[in-house]
Amino acid sequence: MKISIIGTGNLATHLSEACARDGVQVAQVWGRDAGKAAAVAAISGAVAISNFGELDQKVDLILLAVADDAIGSLSRSLAKVFTSSEIQPVVAHLSGATPIAVFEKTGLRHYGVFWPLQSFRSGKKVDFREVPVCINGSDRKALESLGHLANRLSDQVCTVSESQRQALHLAAVFVNNFTNHLLTISKELTDEAAVPFDLLKPLLRETVNRLDSGEPRDLQTGPAIRGDLKTITRHLKLLAGHPQFQQLYALLSESIRNRDEG
Length: 262
What we know:
Blueprint: E1 2-6, H1 10-22, E2 25-30, H2 34-44, E3 47-49, E4 61-64, H3 68-82, E5 90-93, E6 111-116, E7 133-137, H4 140-153, E8 157-159, H5 162-192, H6 201-209, H7 223-226, H8 229-238, H9 243-261
Parallel strand pairs: 1-2, 1-4, 2-3, 4-5, 5-6, 7-8
Antiparallel strand pairs: 6-7
Helix pairs in contact: 1-2, 8-9
């Protein structure tokens, strides 16, 4: 299998590393910044390009590892390159949120989604084999091509419908983004109290590790699930100087109580 990568950011970098590790041939890496394209291309031995006219038209798959807002315009640009091609490659974006319909009026014949369900950071190594990859395609060719690549790179591959991917992305925001926001609040509270935030890390690890042995709803602890209104009232008073935190605490506590009653 021969692929090309459009983009030079964190995801393109991690994807290039995974391809190099598992022997997937990356033919080209495209980027507007020639220097960045060269740096990412060097990871897998690919050729760096900054002009769509230089694209190898014989690759099996082109992955759009770019910002969501750029997917539509880049897809249309790709379609112009392959308009006269008798055999078009599969083109896929790597977004959890962008609908697959973004490709429908571009002129591309085979397209899909290749979504690694993970948060990627610069300089942070990620074992791509442990990253779930969710795929979907417009036709059999797209699904086969995306499935082939996904199974080369990851031990957990899942074919999902459009609605399933949207639900997964929403759930991921709760798991990752909202959880991190709550940790940010916790850090602010411990800083104000002049106690080490590190004291909470074992509790956080235990909270995550418990998921291996039960359902989240069954593992809920704390004053809200116990109906401990005295403790909740004390906590709300402690948050008097942070009305937004106070409101969030009250909303989450009420949500926990309602879920338990339901």
